[in-house]
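Batch 3, record 17
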Amino acid sequence: GQNIDQPTEMTATEGAIVQINCTYQTSGFNGLFWYQQHAGEAPTFLSYNVLDGLEEKGRFSSFLSRSKGYSYLLLKELQMKDSASYLCAVSSTGGFKTIFGAGTRLFVKA
Amino acid sequence: ETGVTQSPTHLIKTRGQQVTLRCSSQSGHNTVSWYQQALGQGPQFIFQYYREEENGRGNFPPRFSGLQFPNYSSELNVNALELDDSALYLCASSTGAGPAAYNEQFFGPGTRLTVL
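Prediction for the assembled complex:
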């Protein structure tokens, strides 16, 4: 079957670092995406990993281990505006289907 | 370059009715995917169209159907609406060019459908 697991909620302090984990089981793998979604808005693209390792983009980094079916999103120097849901999504081969996790709601407190 | 747009923004229907949602893809994008997002959940894949042909489908019944037009705009049609169809419907466009293509999707703002 196909399954993506990520924590439901996390809380962190402004200026700190937070790591959001994602584990997946899918039939075929064509890359893993992280999206940010503020309440009532559409998801916006953060990162894409298709090879093992760390991809860094400003305050955001994403890591992938294909053998472990594991990824994480690392957010540094947290800001209040980072309070949002973070969606882990896997693109599977065949049919271009993208499977989303339920999302992790991140609360950033002062 | 224009982004992905959707209409209408909000819609209220009653059980048993039919609804058509519309999506205009980002310029240059030939692939559109539709998703249903219930409150507090991640988007669930409904189907994808690539160059006017359905290119993949999720676990949704046949009363969910779609079209993609030559200009790559798209429609999602839902017949015999049920209460559980109440959700945010998102479309996302991309430049998918094959099974192994990197396929970053750009989402529209969504249509909030309420079924009473």
